[in-house]
Design goal:
The protein folds into 2 domains: 83 residues, Ribosomal Protein L15, Chain: K, domain 2, CATH 3.100.10; 227 residues, Four Helix Bundle (Hemerythrin (Met), subunit A) (Up-down Bundle). It is built from 10 helices and 13 strands. The strands form 4 sheets. Strands 2, 3, 4, 5 and 7 form a 5-stranded mixed beta sheet that branches. It has a 4-stranded mixed beta sheet with strand order 1-6-8-9, with helices on both faces. A two-stranded antiparallel ribbon has the order 10-11. Strand 8 and strand 9 form a beta hairpin. The radius of gyration is 21 Å and the shape is globular. The relative contact order is 0.10.
Amino acid sequence: MKHTYYLFNPGTLERKDNTLKFTPIVEDGNGKETGGQPRYLPVENVSDLYVFGSLRANSALYNFLGASDIAVHFFDYYENYTGSFMPRDSLLSGRMLLAQTSHYQDKKKRIAIARKFIEGAAFNMVKNLKYYNKRGRDMEPLINQIEGYASKIPETTQTNELMGIEGNIRMTYYDAFNCIINDFEMGNRTKQPPSNEVNALISFGNMMCYSQCLRAIHQTQLNPTISYLHVPGERRYSLSLDISEIFKPLLVDRVIFKVLNKKELQEKHFDKNLNRCLLNQNGKKIFVQEFENRLNETIRHRALNRNVSYKHLIKLECYKT
């Protein structure tokens, strides 16, 4: 079974025979860089690499990664997703590209698909609130409010109307966070930069979710730049934004509730400076471990009548799109 590996430390990644060799870069007391203890990763066990530190690599390494169907996702110091190295598209389909474009250009077909993304997102948000409502948190007023907004989705004829409803649903949903989370407060949703711990986790987790959706799209014949809810733009994979709307409540928010309420993440795991709050390296390691655990959890798929992981569920959603 292939696994995702996370590179938090700066270092050098290179090919060593048929393995990947990662050598972390460490500094001595005089600021001189030296190589740390290398780690070897059997290439057949690697599906993705997430890079959070500075990475040194050459073209030969990326040729090897491409041939081995290994994707690399890059994040900057501020936890922003900056781009991905994706293996060559082995599932290219001109027919699929034409079909995607045709559905985007047909207003009725586009809005029908876009509605499904928001309906799925609203359903999963309500599912989260109902979970905590059964555990003594009074979520009924917020559930009713979200369901009221969601009832208007079938009436929408423009994507900007739909985005407005989505914004109202999400604002109401975020109002529940202070009732669900014990020792931290969310306040207003702030993104660039996140102003507190909860906002930092939402931003970081959403970036992780976008990357997972992008990888799943790449494993199908879909083109990630043609989307239906979000407007396709330059230099972004907007279809991954569409699909992630469905999965953020299931993958990101549930992990946030767990790591904070179980005190796996505490104030010491965040760095605060210049009105910006970010996870530190230890905090990132804890969060991504729980995120991976969540991805590998299985649920019963009603149509397939078998258990599937959340990670595979993303891919199945791409096939539905």
